[in-house]
Amino acid sequence: MRPPLPGTARRLRRFAFTAWLSACTLAIAGATTEPLWLRYPAVSPDGTTIAFSYAGRLWRVAATGGEASPLTDAGDYATHPVWSPDGTQLAVALKRRGNTDVHLLPAAGGESRRLTHHAAADLPAAFSPDGATIYFASPRLGTPHSVLAGTAAHTDQLYAVPATGGRNRLVLPTPALNVSVDATGGRFLYESRPIYENEWRKGAVSDGTHDVWLFDRATATHRRLTSFRGEDREPVWDPASIGYYYLSERNRATNLWHAGLEPGATPTEVTHHTGGTVRFPSVARDGSLVYGHEGEVWRLAAGATEPTRVAITLPAGVITSQPAPVDAGKYLSEITASADGRRVALVARGEVFVLATDTGRLTRITRTAGHEQHVRFSPDGTTLYYASERDGDMDLFAADLGQSDEIKPVERKLVDTTGDLLYPRPSPDGRSLAYLADRSTLRVRDLATGATVDAMPAGGLYSYVDEDVTFTWSPDSRFLAASGGSIVANQDIVLLDATGRSAPRDVTRSGFPDSDPQFSSDGQSVFWVSERAGLRQADAHGGQGDVFRAYLTREAFDATRHAAPAAPPVAGWQPQLAGIERRTQRITPASSLLVFHAPASGDEVLFTIETDMAGRITGRTVAREGGKLREVFTRPAPADGYAVDAGSRHVYLLGDGRVDRIELATGETKAFALDLSLEVDSRAELTAWFERFWRLTKFKFYEPTLHGRDWDALRRHYARFLPHVDAWEDFAEMMSELAGELNASHMGCYYLKEDPAADKTASLGLYFDDTYTGAGARVTAILPGGPADLAANPCPPGTLLLAINDQPITAETDLEALLNGLVDQPVRLRLQTAVGAPETEATIVAIAQNAAQDLAYDRWIDERRAMVDRLSGGRLGYVHISAMDLPNYQQVYSDVVGDLGRKEALIVDIRYNKGGNIHDELVALFTGRDIASFTTRAGENIARIPTARWTKPTALLQNAAAYSDGSIFPHLYQRLQLGPLVGDRVPGTGTAVWWMYVMNGSLKWGVPQLGAKDNLSGWFENDEIVPDVLVTNDPAALAAGRDPQLEATVAALLQKLPQP
């Protein structure tokens, strides 16, 4: 679940790309001779050799151990090795064009050959017994009949490609991971994936866990082989193909088990590790088994009863600690200006720099492996305050800069506690420093004596994510204005006594979000952003905002009405908050999407920066009299940070490797180019993110015992792998394994960096016949609304696609290779609509794959609605909610209050719901009671009361993939007894998460920090929602286009209606 973020109050900045090195974690220097974190081991068919992944490369070693030799170069990320039946080749996932593609690699080493060219992530799983075909998993468009089409990002389907390269063909249109093919090639073991969740989560017991299935290709039937409700995964055939090995948590720790194929077969535990997790089993023809355990490779020899660790060494110099050059200008995160505008401080890749605006000289202030943030100048501009991540937490530092443009900073630590200290804000008189302690307390420190007071004690605010708490000093240094409360519920502006002697006082007292307070230059009024007057989103989460102003004394307000002449405030004046609502004014004449504001000077009262739906930003001033707007600048894209100097004489924009200074009076702009070339220690970076993610999880996780796990011990355990991790992909996987130890939703680490050179495979909006083996590609269906869905109908079903942009299509042409780079481009097709028909040409504009998936989802919805209409005789309506977000709410509201209002009852389908935060709105929508109507004098009922809520029966259709808020809503629906629930049991994933995007969005870590809690039953997390009618969807039915769950929901809801 996500919190309702105020749309105008802030745009949360991403962490800069940096790190700090923990003394408790090993650093590496030189060679690693006994490596850890060996992943994806695979034994050769003859049992003599093991291939594995380490440091982003593939290696091979004798099954008995020894020194391994590399199979791939250090520049390519390689993983998932799969041996060919004759042991001469390996199918591998190689990442060269922004995503993993299947490559074929000589087992002895040499040049690899690329076999797949789709922009989706392709992962090899198995060879056919004759070695001619490679099976792989990939999340692609699938078939027009698949019930999963377009509904979820986790629907990796099974495809096949010839080992010589060529046409990719769909084998299974339903999720099938870690496929293993038997000796005949006709039976497939595979692992189901019913839910999008951290792949490495441990200990879950629900319908969302993985199971082992058997697919018989001859009969097109699927059979579930495992019944344990925890994790059963990664099946591999035994040598005789009469049973299979797989991983299971049946006895708590993940171990290797063996079972037969007969129904009800009793599995036998093969390994007996009492701690850690077994991963990646593989089996040789002689029956010897190889697997991974706790970052090492283990082997169970044929006929042996106890496995042994395979001792592996590597050549020297595999992982080094040499600094690497990095352009930190790509990782800008924040900016602040001194009062006189002579200096600008900025943060780039977590390091602090100061720019002298007179000379353009840029001085680096910090040189740490730690992350610095929240920079602020002292009133005279000679000291810079900031928070820095060192020694296991965030502490406050100051750098003395002096007066000269040739800065020689002297750093000193100001405040050091065991918790995080953030947002240092010096008082205007320079005597005090306010800051946020432990993300819950606003504290003020006397800089001379070190004495502290709590201006806002714990409980007055809750910081959900960094950058969501804002506060500022009054000009006389006696007060602070701050955002109190939380963005999760509601924020108000509160006035704080800097001495801590008086309790916080609410200035805004509003049910609408209020944020970003600023004092006027005389301290007699407070500006802030509020959404109370702007357009609100339909889901009530965010909208347009305005800047409001509240006068803290009657005298100051009277002066604006010319009832009394304006006079400077009397020393020691006190705020008069009684009746302040009558002294509150809207300053901006029109609501907008505000990203920045600051008081102005002279004839202008305010400066604002707003954005529009196209991403443009515009800076404007507001006249003191009449509120007239004056445009100062317009830019095509938002900046990475904004700042003003005293009196808002200039605004400073940070972005694109430079600082732009704009004079508000004239709009004149001066650009300062930034040379931010740094040498970065990647070892320290990896360690730093490990420490930060671990620490924030420890102190922010929603449940205080962290589900009973020893988080400190887990830190020590996983920290030993850090010296052996040399690729961000491996780091993300290791961190996901750590996160998985807590058995919680909304956790995991994901590497998301986009490669500018990545393939972008276009879609023609056509489905092809994967059984057709002749020249060309035979069209089976057209995607409604897609590029080929034209009035002229150039390629109806049955048409042969013979060429794309004059490139002939043979029986083995890889279509994706022809479509890369053609997104939004006109594509010329050569077609033959029927056997013997003349060839024709048509030009269509190809679309992106995600656009095709969206259209496939629309088709899926249309098919569900038609199915419900047919099965119910037109009595029932149908809506699907794919995510708990604004577009879904708008569509559901439109359907329910509009066209579906004439139906007798409604099916609400939340299968594959990705979460969000609209459970309140949906509960309100579906709990209406028909109590009155608007009726004409002739007795005609024009509208019922309530007019905007559903008052008729409903049924809720759910499956295990209803996630986050998609699981909170069915819990509430069942608790309120709104109607029958049908489908799978839904795993309890009811937490609110802080997804931290760091390295400019390249790395993502989740902390579930707030748990939904039922007044009667307790935490929603890990508490399954059991339906009234339990129905699972058989994969064969799904592949055929049937939907047994929906059929059962129709039947259940019709039983609630009077018989026609």
Automatic annotation (TrEMBL):
- Look up the EC number in the record and give it: 3.4.21.-
Name the family: Belongs to the peptidase S41B family.
Query: Which InterPro entries does this UniProt record tie to the protein?
Result: 6-blade_b-propeller_TolB-like, ClpP/crotonase-like_dom_sf, PDZ_sf, Tail-specific_protease, Tricorn_C1, Tricorn_protease
Q: Which UniProt keywords apply?
A: Cytoplasm, Hydrolase, Protease, Serine protease, Signal
One GO term in the molecular function aspect is: serine-type peptidase activity
Question: Superkingdom of this entry's organism?
Answer: Bacteria
**Residues at the site labelled Transition state stabilizer:** D965
Q: What class of enzyme is it?
A: hydrolase
Start and end of every Tail specific protease domain?
840-1032
Read off the CDD domains from this record: Peptidase_S41_TRI (cd07562)
Query: Would you tell me the protein name for this molecule?
Result: Tricorn protease homolog
Task: Tell me, in a sentence or two, what this protein's role is.
Answer: Degrades oligopeptides.
**Signal peptide start-end:** 1-29
Please give a single GO biological process term from the UniProt record. Answer: proteolysis
Entry's Pfam families?
Answer: Peptidase_S41, Tricorn_2nd, Tricorn_C1, Tricorn_N
Q: Give the annotated active site.
A: H746, S964, E1021
Give the CC-aspect GO terms: cytoplasm
What is the source species?
Lacunisphaera limnophila
List the subcellular locations. Cytoplasm
